[in-house]
Design goal:
This protein is mainly alpha-helical. It has one domain. 78% of the residues lie in helices and 0% in strands. It has 16 helices and no strands.
């Protein structure tokens, strides 16, 4: 029996919620069946992949589905008209503020980034969101406040916002739309044909079409990206890192940023590591620059973005954000 799209959507969302909230206990049960040493690095890497891979795929699916429905109300042309009435800089600010209230890690923010690009929102605005979402969220703010005090938390939020807004603005001004993969614009142009008065079932059908077209193209890159993150998760050499994160060496900030890029973690996972580094003698600005690079410029994120963006644009993104992070690192070292 064929279900109406609206009823199928209810079942889809219900199943999504059940699976999403069952991920953590299911992961714990699965890893326990492997009979591996509970505290080994291999066990932690496997646990990380088994949990993060389906979580990010679930987020990708639901975000694309919702964006597909929203897009049926706002065509790309109408979206551009609405945004055209506002300055791009205001768009960067709004996107960065949205990033603050969406507690995503870098890989989890990519699905919504894809939805923004696919809907026709300017690239600079979407990059402001992609930078702010993992770097500044309530988890990061609360942990920084608890460990370092309100002044440090406030400066971090302010400088993080400045990086997100300015980086997105700079990328937007560079006119780099030609470095977006062609399939994104193909999907964008293939809007589901709707009647002049489409029903909600028509709009839900548009959401399912978006899931089919987009998720089928990026899921492999998601798995590769999370696999890289799992490979390095738990292998942070804290003593070595603390030794090169001193305040005296001018090169400590950029080197720490370079070291942080191959790693992958969210704010909740990396801030305790930063705290441990500080206890071992690392300077605050250098340690925070390392943290920003881990959660804002992770290698798994770059791998996932490669399906959407061409290499020149990924390189531009990395360079612009890295320069902003390095400036923040030097600023913190100067203040403290």
């Amino acid at each position: 029996m064929n279900l109406k799209p609206s009823r199928l959507a209810v079942l889809f969302v219900a199943a999504w919620i059940i699976v999403y909230f069952a991920l953590e206990p299911a992961t714990i049960s699965f890893v326990s069946l492997l009979s591996l040493p509970p505290d080994s690095r291999l066990t932690e890497a496997i646990r990380f992949f088994v949990y993060e891979a389906p979580k990010v795929l679930l987020l990708l699916t639901i975000v694309v589905f919702v964006v597909g429905i929203i897009r049926s109300y706002f065509s790309p042309e109408r979206t551009r008209q609405i945004l055209g009435k506002r300055s791009l800089f205001l768009g960067n600010i709004l996107a960065s503020m949205l990033g603050i209230v969406t507690p995503f890690c870098s890989c989890s923010a990519v699905p919504l980034f894809i939805g923004f690009v696919e809907t026709g929102i300017p690239l600079g605005v979407t990059f402001s969101f992609l930078i702010a979402a993992p770097m500044i969220n309530e988890v990061a703010v609360v942990l920084l406040f608890g460990l370092f005090g309100w002044k440090t938390a406030l400066i971090y939020v302010t400088t993080g916002l400045a990086i997100a807004i300015s980086s997105g603005f700079v990328i937007g001004r560079l006119r780099v739309e030609r470095f977006v993969e062609e399939w994104v614009y193909t999907v964008k142009s293939q809007n589901l044909t709707l009647d002049s008065n489409p029903t909600f079932d028509d709009r839900v059908r548009a959401g399912f079409v978006a899931v089919r077209d987009i998720v089928s193209k990026v899921w492999v890159y998601v798995l590769i990206g999370i696999g890289v993150g799992a490979g390095v998760h738990g292998y942070v050499p804290e003593n070595f890192l603390a030794g090169i994160m001193g305040k005296s060496a001018w090169w400590s900030v950029p080197v720490s940023v370079l070291i942080g890029v191959p790693l992958y973690s969210n704010a909740a996972g990396i801030i305790p590591i930063v705290h441990a580094l500080l206890e071992k003698g690392a300077s605050l600005g250098t340690a925070l620059a390392f943290m920003m690079s881990v959660i804002g410029l992770s290698l798994p994120e770059m791998i996932i973005l490669r399906k959407v963006l061409k290499l020149p644009l990924i390189l531009i993104f990395v360079v612009v954000v890295a320069v902003g992070i390095i400036i923040v690192g030097y600023l913190f070292n100067f203040i403290y």
